[in-house]
Fold this sequence. Notes:
By secondary structure, this protein is of the alpha+beta class. The chain is 38% helix and 21% strand. Strands 18-19-17-16-22-23-24 form a 7-stranded mixed beta sheet. It has a 5-stranded mixed beta sheet with strand order 3-2-1-5-15.
Amino acid sequence: MLLIGVDIGTSSTKGVLVDESGRIIASHLVFHSVNRPQPTWAEQDADQVWWGGFVAVVRSLMSQAPKRSKIAGIGVSGTCPTLLPVDYNGKPLRPGILYSIDRRAIEEINEINSKVGPKEILESSGNVLSTQCIGPKMLWLMRHEPQLYKRTKWFLGTNGYVVLRLTGVACWDHFSAGDGGYGYDFSNCKWDVDALNRMGIDFSLLPQLRWSTELVGTVISDAARETGLPEGTPVIAGVGDAAAEMVSTGVIEDGSLVLLYGSSLVTMSSVRKPYVSSGFILTPGLEPDNYFVSSVLGTGCALIEWLRNVLNWNDRVPDYDLLENEAMLVKPGSNDLIIIPYLTGQRSPEVNPNMFGAILGINQSHTFGHLYRASLEGMAFALRYSLSKLEKAGLLKDYEIVAGGGGSKSELWTQIVTNVCRREQKLISGSVQAPIGSAFLAGKAVGIFSSENLKKWVTYQKTIRVQKNMADIYDHSYGLFMKYLGLLAQNI
């Protein structure tokens, strides 16, 4: 009994074939790109990239499946929220519009905010209106591509389109719909018809909502011929890539926290009661009466790459080992050098797109080792600021941090975060993989796995413990960080 999990990401599609014990039998990856026909646009061809990548990955996995094995279920995750109009035959009418990196609908965002009001938008959807939202992009299509809009039968997301191709059933999973913002009623977990009407959007263009582990159908004959999958194989609704990544860490219990050290520094927590705050992202969870609350620091590993490029000399970019070694010679607190890490604006725990990065307290004693360490510390301070809000709201009490992602390979950075936040971190062995999360969800849907099984799938390479003497030093530095941040906010 094998399970297939596939994740359609921004730059690649990855898939795994998993057995009943959670062991990966086979894996495959194909790369793709993002099209930018206009500077503020970000699109992908749904047939070539989403479906084509899925077919290539699944065919490879099926060729590696042991003889006499059976595919018990299929789970698909993908970038979210994305927007793809399809016609009455399920054919894409244009390339899919990607998530927040597509900024074409700024005018529509401002118009909806002005007409409805940011407070009402936040209260009804649990999120602020931003380039992440699908409503303004639907409105943009109505205005700029009206003939296409008239031919649209449904708007679908990334995994929703693949599920349609596999089963013939059109749906949105609740997580992706909620991540799409205004137009989804988080209190009742349904499409918000009133909100859609206020934006001028036809409610019938959005198909049924399904929970991530719901079986929506089975593989139809056309899809079986293209993919090599057995006809009749069960298919779940699937989920957005961030939620699938969270599942792959083994953390799905209430009050737990996942920290992903990627280009952005992202936290996700599973909670029973919704937490509405403009500085956090609220989405439905995987099942009814469950929610995810996320914080985002736009520059995680991206800040490190920026600093490496700044320190570039004669086309020689300093490598990570050099930076880490130099930073380890610097005492905690970096001699009161404070770096404010909001190079792309502030998203959590407050929304301030006009906030900027800053280097404060610099003097002639500071070296590039100080700069690098202060960058790691600045991101840790920003994380502590977000976590303090969640703690005060009662969402996090006695908790530990489960961490993964490329940046978690840095022993220095993870120790700094542990000391600054005064929370132990468990580092996941291997990489965080959304396809594994999707495979688990498929297994849960068909009755092979339970939440207890998931804990056995995940192994940890080490636990980072709090060094109290260092943590005490960082309390002083965190105070400086908050002081400087407050002064900057007053002068924007």
